[in-house]
Amino acid sequence: MMKTFAVNGAGLGLRRELLPSLESGVPDVVSFFEVSPENWIDIGGRLGKIFHSYTERHTFVAHGLSLSLGGPAPLDIPFLLRLKDFLDEHNFALYTEHLSYCSDEGHHYDLYPIPFTEESVRHVAERIYITQDILERPIALENASYYVKPPLAEMDELTFINAVLTEADCAFHLDVNNIYVNSLNHNYDAAAFLKGLKGERIVYGHVAGHDLDKSGMIIDTHGQAACDPVWQLLELAYQTFGVFPTLLERDFNIPPLADLLVEVEHIAALQHRFDNSSCIALDHRSRPDIHGVVPPDLTSTDGGNAARLPGVVAAMHVVGESS
Q1: Nearest to residue 34, comparing CAs of 3, 56, 55?
Q2: Among 137, 141, 206, which residue's Cα sits nearest to residue 177?
Q3: 200-240: per-residue pLDDT in tens?
Q4: Which of 72, 159, 173, 244 could form a disulfide with 96 if both were Cys (CB 3.0 to 4.6 A apart)?
């Protein structure tokens, strides 16, 4: 069974620094854009009008930063109501958030790992249900990078992610760079981890770069070009799950648009390659084992240039309108 998606093709994170370069037109290779609502939700005036002109003409997804789905503090209901209006106003195709937390008695402006426990699974799932009820739309969870092993763990990261996706019956936003970063920082097999994920729930993916800290820790900065092992991991994801929409994240040290388009074009080329090899997206439960695929070398440390809501499942099988 072929899987369809709310967005398609290769995407690019829209940063304000890129707006002057996009005034002459959006390159054909960019099929959709992504923004973090927190960076745009209260923007008015000239910049707000420019943003509105883009969302009227192009497909957008929203990737949240501050919902704190795993946090102990109550959900920020006033923010969720503002977020609903923002998502509706700009007709976002998807809304995703991190499987992490960033608040307790105040906002910490960072993403922290959730304890890998059964209690956390139930806690996060309940908050997802509430969020979806308020937003009146399904959300998807992204696997997050983390730098300190969560305390009181009763299961490993892979088991935890799959348990939350199952308990919440929600969609999955796959970040292959986060898998790579975590695999080096926490010493696990990135390829095996990826193959164990619930690929049938993927709605789109991220590819990004990172930096090597002087301590030896790999930091998910989105400040460099993606390195070869991350591209190889994306290839393995396409081989394993079939081609899915994928977006290039670049949040810091932003180069000229032409440089970013080289990476977006690489995403599009990989998608075309695996589409042509008949590696279509299948329901994971009926997907045959893939034989003869040599796992890529994912061991490099090179930073690469340094169902309460019926729409939850439907969102993973709906074709969105293209711009």
Answers
A1: 55
A2: 206
A3: 999 999 999 988 877 778 788 878 999 999 999 999 999 99
A4: 173
